[in-house]
Amino acid sequence: MAVLVLAEHSNSALNDVTAKTVAAAQAFGGDVDVLVAGHHAKAAADAAAKLAGVRKVLHVEGEAFSHALAEAVEALVVPMMANYDAFFAPATTTGKNVSPRIAAKLDVMQVSEITKVIDKDTFERPIYAGNAIMTVKSSDPKKVVTVRGTAFQPVASSGSASVETVAAPAGPYLAAFVSEQVQKSDRPELASAKRVVSGGRALASADQFNQYILPLADKLGAGVGASRAAVDAGYAPNDFQVGQTGKVVAPELYVAIGISGAIQHLAGMKDSKIIVAINKDEEAPIFQIADYGLVGDLFKIVPELTSKL
Questions:
Q1: CA 240 to mean position of chain CA atoms
Q2: Model pTM?
Q3: What is the C-alpha radius of gyration for the chain, rounded to an integer number of angstroms?
Q4: Deepest of 24, 55, 226, 272, by most Cβ within 10 A of its Cβ?
């Protein structure tokens, strides 16, 4: 039995979620190979080779893989699956874009956002914004699985797998990458940050979001998040959104400021190791899952906390 894991990377570096996806693949059982498809992605392939428990790394180079176009990755992966029993990908933007196409081509059911591997046919995944856990059993001969990285501990970087170069499919493809606009920041990327400071609708304006949330995040060396209500109101950009329809995070420290704790938001951060909540409403649902709760006026508390730090 063997599993093919799709590496999440930026060509120059491997994303932390890859090590967590490898951990899920090892729980499935069998040999684990990692596919690094990119453009000038040797550094990412070398990093993948160091992941503990990986048998080998398949390194594919091509411009079509520089932004992981679903059509190109599907053309690469589907023929490979003759040698594998399962395909595991992180439940990230890339994984969610690529995996359904691969599942369709293999004519199998995709198992999405698993949080636990019970056996080679059975998995657990959250439903109803994480309020219930569904046990899914698949009888398909080949499994296509996306993994919620926050549910798995990453494997160590203590391996020494071989790196094998694989030829890219010829193409051409109907889809082509046009452009992207990336917001640059010195702060940690939200999905992989060890600490996150999030603001909610109670901040009342974009200026106050920036005035109160950003200095605290800078003091903590934290990523910046926001509730959907804050994003919809224009206080923070879309890529700050944490929740069921945003990013799912599980940092060591999560500070929720002026966030009531709707179930959609809790679904995106309740696996955080330590949760700190600041809210003037002592009945706010966020306090039900917080390790530390402070009831009071955030406009007084946050500046004082920032100055103490």
A1: 13
A2: 0.84
A3: 21
A4: 226
